[in-house]
Amino acid sequence: MERREWSxxxxxxxxxxxxxxxxxSIIAEKIGDGVTRNAVIGKVHRLGLMRKHRxxxxxxxxxxxxxxxxxxxxxSPPMVPEPKPQIPTTPPEPKNVSIFDxxxxxxxxxxNYDEGGMALFCGAETAGEKSSWCPYHQSIYFNHERRR
Length: 148
Prior knowledge:
Number of helices: 4
Shape: elongated
Strand order of the largest sheet: 1-3-2
Structural class: mainly alpha
Number of domains: 2
Order of helices and strands: HHHEEEH
C-alpha cells in the first residue's frame, strides 16, 4: 500500500466539505487524484474534525426505497365462535377402581381411599384416546371457568 502526502489545498478542501456535511465518498470524488473514501475518513480522524451539520443538497443522494405492492386483501367469512363442548355437571358414579385394576380407558381421578389408605380411582370411561380423565374430571382439572 502506498502512503501519499496530502497537499494543503486537498486538506483545505477536505475541511470545507466535511464541515458542510458532505459525505466522505463525495469528498473523495471532489478531491480526485486517487483519494478514496477510506483515505478521507482516515484523514478526518487524524485531523480530529467534527461535523456541525449535514447539508442535504451536498450529501450523496440515496436511491428511493422501492415499495412492494401488497397483494389484495381477500375478505374472509365472519368468524363464528366454536360451540363450547357440553361439560357434564354431575360426576359419574365412582367405580372405586384400584391402581392394579386400572386400564388405559379408565379415569385416573382419585375419588376415595380404601381401609389400607390405598387410592381408589373414578374408573369411568376417559374423554378421549389421549386423555387420562373422564369428561367431568377433565373439565374440573383443565377448565379455568369452573375453578372457584
